[in-house]
Write a structure and sequence with these properties.
This protein is an alpha/beta fold. The chain has eight helices and nine strands. The chain has one domain: Rossmann fold (3-Layer(aba) Sandwich).
């Protein structure tokens, strides 16, 4: 299968990239980035581009079976709510639109627990608005992932996040019943789930399929063959 991967320089995207390149079921990976990746592989195409002009990617996207999207930032890193929305809504949606135009059958989106277009929380509202926009594109298959705290070793230092991760690992077993979806999840677990889901063939035609995966379903999917 040919897979498109957005956000391959981030925590989850980087883990997905390694798994895709190592998987014998994958024949090609297209990973668009703003700066060249430091990974060389015969299966990897790494178009370097301006995310304001994604229309130049149509030839690269053609023939792809699925697209995994891990694009995202934080309000602190982006510098403002407007800049955050540009990445987490506009760039994500533009990438999806290009993939839909190229005939990609399955879009997989890393969103967040609590995402809702009606949320009073700006972060959650942007995530929810993106989900609504993706559903309107009517991919034959749309898989939305709702992780809570993402746990893993990032390249940049985030002291407060590192403390939160340590606390999350302690309280995770205490989150049961309706609180279970709020358990923190390891980066490689989410990446395994995304890759395993992406490699499930989707059929063209018929009623578009929309599936949402929160903690328990993500863990089960990560463990599937």
């Amino acid at each position: 299968m040919k897979i498109v991967l957005w956000g391959s320089t981030g925590l989850i995207g980087h883990a997905c990239l390694q798994m895709l390149l190592d998987d014998t079921r994958v024949t090609a990976v297209v990973a668009p980035t703003r700066r060249p990746l430091d990974i060389k592989d015969a299966k990897l195409a790494n178009p370097v581009l301006n995310f304001e002009r994604l229309d130049s990617l149509q030839a690269e996207l053609s023939g792809a079976d699925a697209s995994i999207c891990c694009l995202g930032t934080t309000i602190k890193k982006a510098g403002s709510q407007e800049a955050f929305r540009k990445v987490d809504f506009e760039y994500n949606l533009a990438a999806a639109q290009q993939c839909k135009a190229a005939g990609v059958k399955h879009w997989l989106q890393v969103s967040a627990i609590g995402a809702s277009s009606r949320s009073p929380v700006f972060y959650s509202r942007v995530k929810g608005e993106l989900e609504s926009a993706l559903k309107a594109l009517r991919f034959p298959g749309l898989s939305i992932f709702h992780p809570s705290m993402l746990m893993g070793d990032r390249e940049e230092s985030r002291p407060l996040e590192e403390i939160s991760i340590k606390v999350t690992r302690v309280i995770n077993p205490l989150l049961v019943g309706p609180l279970k979806p709020y358990r923190g999840i390891e980066d490689d677990t989410l990446a395994h789930a995304l890759v395993n889901r992406a490699l499930v063939p989707q059929q063209n035609g018929g009623i578009p399929s929309v599936n949402v995966f929160s903690y328990e379903k993500i863990v089960t999917l990560a463990q599937s063959a």
